[in-house]
Amino acid sequence: MASTLQKGKILAVIGDEDTVVGFLLGGIGQLNKARKPNFLIVDKNTTTHDIEEAFKTFVARDDVAIILINQYIAEMIRHVVDQHTASIPAVLEIPSKEFPYDPSKDSILNRAKGMFSADDFR
């Protein structure tokens, strides 16, 4: 039943050029009915406001199930990422070529850590 509810859902990507192009080459590029893409390439000219707006737009879209965002970009808009608590779309912070993944900065991972104790894994 859950798989039928997710039919037609897509990925959205916010990242540097290498990350986004890699996913586009993998076939994730889509335009919705309003001709809006499901990705944002962040470069030195992209403002924090543009990143926030893209994130908020992807969160509001009903066709997006997962948002992938480079962790260093998520840090730029951490207050907005932390406000998103819904399970769908899921927000996954990923590394980039220039910036490795740091689990201590991942708000979703930190939230999940608070849900379990060491006794849960014995």
Labels describing this entry:
122 residues, alpha/beta, 6 helices, 4 strands, disordered N terminus
Could you walk me through the main structural features you see in this protein, from its secondary elements to its overall organization?
This is V-type proton ATPase subunit F. Keywords: Hydrogen ion transport, Ion transport, Transport. One of its GO terms (molecular function) is proton-transporting ATPase activity, rotational mechanism. Belongs to the V-ATPase F subunit family. It holds the Pfam family ATP-synt_F. A four-stranded parallel beta sheet has the order 2-1-3-4, sandwiched between helices. Helix content is 37%, strand content 17%. It has 122 residues and is an alpha/beta fold. The protein contains six helices and four strands, in the order αβαβαβααβα.
- Read across the widest sheet, the strand sequence of neighbours is 2-1-3-4
How many helices in DSSP terms? 6
Topology, number of strands: 4
Beta-strand proportion: 15-25%
Overall radius of gyration: 15 Å
Largest β sheet strand count, sense and barrel closure: 4 strands, parallel
Instruction: Quote the distance from N terminus to C terminus.
Output: 31 Å
Q: Tell me, what's the shape? A: globular
Mean pLDDT over all positions = 85
Quaternary assembly: single chain
User: Can you give the helix content as a percent range?
Assistant: 25-40%
Summarize the helix and strand pattern as letters. Answer: HEHEHEHHEH
List low-confidence stretches: 1-5
Broad structural category: alpha/beta
Keywords: Hydrogen ion transport, Ion transport, Transport
GO molecular function, one term: proton-transporting ATPase activity, rotational mechanism
Protein name: V-type proton ATPase subunit F
Family: Belongs to the V-ATPase F subunit family.
